[in-house]
Amino acid sequence: MDIVILAVVIAVVVLGALGGLIVGSRRKKQLPPPPPAAPDITAPPAEPHVGDEAEMPREEPRRTIEEVDLPDGSAPVVVEEPPVEAPEIEIPEPTAGRLVRLRTRLSRSQNALGKGLLTLLSREHLDEDTWEEIEDTLLTADVGVQPTQELVERLRARVKVLGTRTPEELRTLLREELVTLVGPDMDRAVKTEPEDRKPGIVMVVGVNGTGKTTTTGKLARVLVADGQSVVLGAADTFRAAAADQLQTWGERVGAHTVRGPEGGDPASVAFDAVKEGKEMGANVVLIDTAGRLHTKTGLMDELGKVKRVVEKQAPVDEVLLVLDATTGQNGLVQARVFSEVVDITGIVLTKLDGTAKGGIVVAVQRELGVPVKLVGLGEGADDLAPFEPEAFVDALIGE
C-alpha cells in the first residue's frame, strides 16, 4: 500500500514538472523582440507654471536707476522735412517781341493763300475761269462766301482800271484789299483796365480742346509782362486737372489762383475769384470757365449763370471766345451758339500758325461782328500775341 502511494506521488511530481517546462517554452516563443534604443531627444522647454508650481525666478543682472539714461526734460527732437521750394517766378516776354514772331510764323505756314492769289492775278489774261479760281482759293482758306464775293468784285474793278500789272503793283493792290477785308479799324485792345474800378474782369469761354485753359494762362503772362497783377479763377470744375493746370500757369508768373472742389459750382468759384481779386487789389481777374460742348443746351445755360453771378459784384469787361483756327466752319457754329449765351466781346484764335486757312479771321469776325483780339502761334508759353491786321496780311502774301 505504501508503495502504491509513493508511486502516485512521484507520478504527480513528474507531471507537474513536465507541465512547467511546456508553459515556459511557449512563453519564450511568444515574447516580442526588445524595442530599439530610444533616440536622444531634447525635451521641449517646460510651460510656465503659476501658483504653487511656479519656479523661483532666476537671478539676472539688472541696471539701477542711476545707470539708465533718462530724458533730460528738453523739447522732443523734431525731424525737419526739407523745405518745399516755391516755383521760380518767370519774366514773360514783352508784347513787342511777340508781334515779330507772329509775322515770321505766319509767313512760314500760311503764305500759300497769298502766293496763290498773286499767281492767279499775274496771268496775262484774267478771264472768268481765272476769277473762279481766285474765288475757290479764298473759299478754301475759309474766308467765307460773302467776304469772298466782295473781295473778288473789288479786285476785278481795280485790276480793270490798273491796266498793265507789274508784280509790285499786284502785291500792293492785294495787300490793300486784304487789310480792308480783315478790318483795320476794329478795336482789338483787351479791356482789362476799367477807369472807375479795380479789378478788370475777363471771362474766357470755349469748347473743350480749343486750348481755353492754356490761353487763360498765357493771357496772364501777357498781362504780367505789361505790369499788371492778376488773379486766376479756376471755374472749369468739371474737367479733370483743369484747376491744377491753371494754377501751374499762375505760379510761373506769381499770379494767385482761386479754385474750388472738383465737380463744384463754377459760378461759386468765379464769384470767389472776383471777391479775392478786390480784396487783394489786383488789376485783373481772369476766369477760366467750363469748356462746354455747344450741343448741350443745359450746360450752355450754366455758362450764362456764371456771368450773371459774377456781375453781382462787378460788370464783366471782356468775354473772350477761344476758337481753334483749324476747325473752319465748325468753329463758326461754336461761335454762333456761344454768342447767344453770353455777349462775346473778342475772339482768340489758337493754332493759327499750323493752318493754311487764315481766312477764318475774316469769317468769324463777320459772323459775330466782334474783332479777333489775340492769336495763338504755337505751344510755347509766350506764343500768344495781340492780333494786328497789317502783320497778318503781310504774312499771308509773303515778302
Distance between the termini: 171 Å
Silhouette:
elongated
Total beta-strand segments: 8
| Major sheet attributes | 8 strands, mixed
How is the largest sheet built, in terms of strand order? 3-2-4-1-5-6-7-8
Radius of gyration: 48 Å
The number of helical segments is 13
Structural class: alpha/beta
- Strand fraction: 5-15%
List low-pLDDT spans.
Answer: none
Average pLDDT across residues?
Answer: 79
> What sequence of helices (H) and strands (E) makes up the elements?
HHHHHHEHEHEHEHEHEHEEH
Question: How would you characterize the overall build of this protein?
Answer:
It is a single chain. With 399 residues, the chain is of the alpha/beta class. 47% of the residues lie in helices and 10% in strands. It contains 13 helices and eight strands. It has helices at residues 2-30, 95-109, 111-121, 128-140, 145-162, 167-182, 212-225, 242-253, 266-280, 297-310, 329-341, 360-368, 389-397; strands at 200-205, 230-234, 256-258, 284-288, 318-324, 346-350, 372-376, 384-386. It has an eight-stranded mixed beta sheet, with helices on both faces.
How do the strands and helices of this protein lay out in sequence?
Elements: H1 2-30, H2 95-109, H3 111-121, H4 128-140, H5 145-162, H6 167-182, E1 200-205, H7 212-225, E2 230-234, H8 242-253, E3 256-258, H9 266-280, E4 284-288, H10 297-310, E5 318-324, H11 329-341, E6 346-350, H12 360-368, E7 372-376, E8 384-386, H13 389-397
Parallel strand pairs: 1-4, 1-5, 2-3, 2-4, 5-6, 6-7
Antiparallel strand pairs: 7-8
Helix pairs in contact: 2-13, 3-4, 3-6, 3-13, 4-5, 5-6, 6-13, 7-8, 9-10, 11-12
